[in-house]
Amino acid sequence: MPVLDAGQDAQSDRYFLVMPLCARSLQREIETTSEDLRFNNLTSAVPAIIAGLQEVPDITHRDLKPANVLFHDGSWKIADFGIAKFVEDSTSLETLRTALTPAYAAPEQWNGERPTSATDVYALGCIVNAIMTGHPPFVGSVDQMREGHLLKRPPSIETLPANIAAFVAQMLRKVPLARPTLKRCAQVFNEIPLETKKASSSYTALHAAAKHVATLEADAEAKRLEAKQRNRERKALFNDASTILKGIYQRLLDEIRRSAETVRLDKAGLKFGAARMVLDPEPQWYDGFNKETRVTGHRVEEVIVRSPWEIVSWSIIKVSSDYSRQSYTWSASLLFADKKDGSGYRWYEIGFFQFAGKQNLYSGSDHESAPFGLAANDRDLILALGSGMHSVGVAYGPFPIDGEDEGRFLERWIDLVARAAVGELRPPDMLPITNFN
Questions:
Q1: Phi, psi angles (nearest 5°) of residue 309
Q2: Residue 68 region, left (φ>0) first, then alpha (ψ -120 to 50), else beta?
Q3: How far apart are CA 172 and CA 119, in angstroms?
Q4: Do the beta carbons of residue 93 and residue 110 sit within 8 Å?
Q5: What is the Cα 151 distance to its own chain's centre?
Q6: Residue 237: closest CA among 150, 335, 351, 350
Q7: pTM of model > 0.70
């Protein structure tokens, strides 16, 4: 849209623009046009929008939407470049975050990143969707639209020819560099006939295949981005979990040290009389699943085994003592997990024992001494947490150990250390343990 005049009002001190009066906006056209005439809007408005963006290649509009496309002097024109800045001068992240309309904002705008011409291409893809369906690809609350633009696959436009629908899906790719350029958009919307025509069966099949492939690619991208977002969230959870557990363990050490002057701390952990306690390893990251190699006949395949809990981090706490010249270790797994019982993510303590075979309760070997702790990526831990029968069972727990339950955890392990220090730490009389809290 041309600007006829501009200035600053002497009375209000506000800046103003003088522009021609336009007949209507594309938004109003979308709201009032019947379905059978939507193709006319597509063929007239979209090439005009592309041409308008190409007129100013050094400027990114940033807020391209149907309400900013106006019909003037016989053609559609882009208006409201008021929030646009020259790309090379775009330095304010706050400006980038606020200059967006949720229904048409590209993923990079939601992430507070610098917009480029690919940002306008994404918005144009949303406009095509609105023209052909009556609404942009993602609707609902602001949070729902944000999730859609960042993670979800846009719905396919069934009213478009398969090849054009596939191209629009490319315009709506989440990664800016993966989107087509404005030049290519101009070629597609100007040179490919958009009206419905009778085509040979081979071209019909090819266009359908293109649409199918575009859908598969969009699904794959959405899954990849969802996994990436989930991984970011899990990493943040892990960092918090690690800090929480280290704090709990440090308070346990402090309580024991305050009670006895002979307590020594070194890299191997706490040493007190005949007792040695250690948190080993320190909180570890868990990616959420284990991979197993299974052989069926002549076939070797890799199978993913998932835990019934949503585990993010893990560690093992151990206290050992010499008893009757035999080394005995009591250990337990510490898991930062969501048990999916409505409690959310918490740290839990859980001990395991071996069901089958002869048990040597005084052995230092993990799967023989009892109770023992297991790593989160140990297959036995995953199976023991499940509902089926397995050779490894739960010896005690799971007990929450953070927040309001931290005191009980400290008491349990202070008692274990005290008994170990004087050689009175004994294996449990019965497994699983029924009177341990």
A1: -100, 155
A2: alpha
A3: 10
A4: no
A5: 8
A6: 335
A7: no
Can you read off the two tokens belonging to residue 392? Answer: 């490894």
Q: pLDDT per residue over 349-407, tens digit each?
A: 999 998 754 444 444 444 457 899 999 988 889 889 987 778 899 999 999 999 888 99
* Residues 85 and 96: beta-carbon distance below 8 Å: no
pLDDT of residue 335: 96
Question: E strand or H helix at 397, and its extent?
Answer: strand 392-400
Cα–Cα distance list, 301 to 96, 285, 298, 306 (Å): 48, 26, 10, 16
**Which parts of the chain have pLDDT scores under 50?**
86-88, 90-91, 93-96, 194-200, 357-367
Q: Which residues pair with 301 in a beta bridge?
A: 294
Helices (H), 159-307: 162-171, 182-191, 201-259
Gyration radius of the chain's alpha carbons: 32
Q: Show the CA angle centred on residue 166, arms to residues 161 and 171, nearest 5°.
A: 125
Topology adopted by domain 5-197: Transferase(Phosphotransferase); domain 1 (1.10.510)
Cβ contacts of 75-83, under 8 Å, gap ≥ 24: 75/44, 75/48, 76/26, 76/44, 76/45, 76/48, 76/49, 77/1, 77/22, 77/48, 77/52, 78/1, 78/49, 78/52, 78/53, 79/1, 79/19, 79/22, 81/56, 82/17
Q: State the DSSP code for 436.
A: -
Distances (CA, A) of 196 to 29, 40, 185, 192, 204: 21, 12, 19, 11, 11
Domain spans of the chain?
5-197, 237-421
What does DSSP assign to residue 320? E
Task: Return the amino acid letter for 39.
Answer: F
Q: Is 82 helix (H, G, I), strand (E, B) or coil?
A: coil
Closest C-alpha to 37, from 195, 190, 204, 211: 195
What pLDDT, on a 0 to 100 scale, did the predictor assign at position 84?
A: 55
257 token code pair:
């040290």
The answer to whether 114 and 108 are in contact (CB under 8 A) is yes
DSSP secondary structure of 140-195: SSHHHHHHHHHHPPPPP-TTS-HHHHHHHHHHT-SSGGGSPPHHHHHHHHHHS--S
